[in-house]
Specification:
alpha/beta, 2 domains, 6 strands, elongated, about 50% helix
């Protein structure tokens, strides 16, 4: 039975409560989350400076052995370079740059080709290095510890600001997971082990970030899609699918309407593979307007508001 999707008379009131909850969290917690991330990023930038001898030695070998320095190096230029801009300016492959942004290099790339592209990247970074921030490069002086820390702080600010939205979103996701976990354990549920497969979840247990294989439209090939939370009700029988929950938070109305098709695509993939009896719920906190809710309701997707988490019980949990 529907829980919230069929009650439009409650939507506007719930939206107001949800926006207030998000704003309260943001004012109380987001600044500290951001500051803590900036502290960690500053340490990472200082490590990048140490590995490159304070940008004096940005070499293909350094990039190959320590690819995770690339984000800091991109923010060390004037102007700072976005990922796609770096790919275009250096004339290197997306695969290489995206791999380095994740801390690795493509394993199958021939060494000669890899070194050639890394040389392009290192040359570009050296030519665009911000001489106002790294003033010692122009004068060929040895920077003091204060110089290094000041420069690292500036680059860390650039890097943290460029990733502000993902930082806040990740913090919100972890907070929502914690709230779901607390509520479930109060109801007597236990967390299943990390190596539990999607089709072997015991009754009365739950877990986060569970992969489910789904069929592609051709019906032959399949891919794995992640689901934020999988809960197997205590009353479940052998062969039952868990209840699936996607945790969603948003700090403005614009982005939610841009992203609302994501959930519809995911549930259609799940239905194509497991049938129409799939139970897929959204866990919402923040800016989700009537247009968003109406779209999800039309797709047959129900939801629970974080400010009324007890509605989960209405789904048989």
């Amino acid at each position: 039975m529907p829980v919230n999707l069929d009650k439009p008379q409650l939507w506007k009131s719930d939206i107001c409560h949800s926006v207030d909850m998000y704003n309260t969290w943001f004012m109380q917690s987001a600044p500290e989350v951001f500051r803590e991330t900036r502290r960690k990023v500053t340490k990472h930038v200082e490590n990048t400076l140490a590995l490159t001898r304070n940008l004096a030695e940005i070499t293909p070998d350094v990039l190959r052995e320590h690819p995770a320095v690339l984000p800091s190096l991109r923010m060390s230029t004037c102007p700072p370079i976005a990922v796609d801009r770096l790919i275009g300016l250096a004339g290197v492959s997306k695969n290489l740059v995206h791999s380095m942004e994740k801390g690795g290099v493509p394993a199958k790339t021939p060494l000669a080709s890899l070194r050639h592209d890394l040389h392009k990247i290192s040359s570009l970074i050296r030519s665009l290095a911000d001489r106002d921030v790294f003033h010692w490069l122009e004068a060929r002086l040895t920077p003091t510890e204060q110089d290094i820390h000041r420069a690292a702080s500036i680059v860390a600010d650039r890097l943290t600001n460029a990733n502000a939205n993902p930082i806040i979103r990740n913090a919100q996701e972890e907070r929502q997971f914690s709230i779901i976990s607390q509520w479930l354990e109060e109801q007597g549920y236990e967390k299943f082990s990390e190596n539990t497969k999607y089709d072997a979840i015991p009754a009365g247990t739950y877990g986060f970030r569970v992969n489910f294989p789904v069929k592609l439209p051709d019906g032959k090939s399949a891919i794995q899609i992640p689901v934020d939370t999988a809960i197997m009700p205590k009353s479940a029988k052998i062969g039952d699918l868990p209840i699936l929950i996607e945790a969603k938070s948003a700090g403005d109305f614009t982005n939610t309407n841009k992203r609302r098709k994501e959930e519809a695509q995911k549930i259609n993939q799940l239905r194509r593979t497991y049938g129409n009896h799939v139970r897929f719920i959204l866990f919402l906190c923040g800016y989700f307007d009537v247009g968003y809710l109406g779209y999800e309701a039309a797709e047959g997707i129900d939801w629970v508001w974080e400010h009324r988490i007890q509605d989960l019980a209405a789904f048989g949990i």
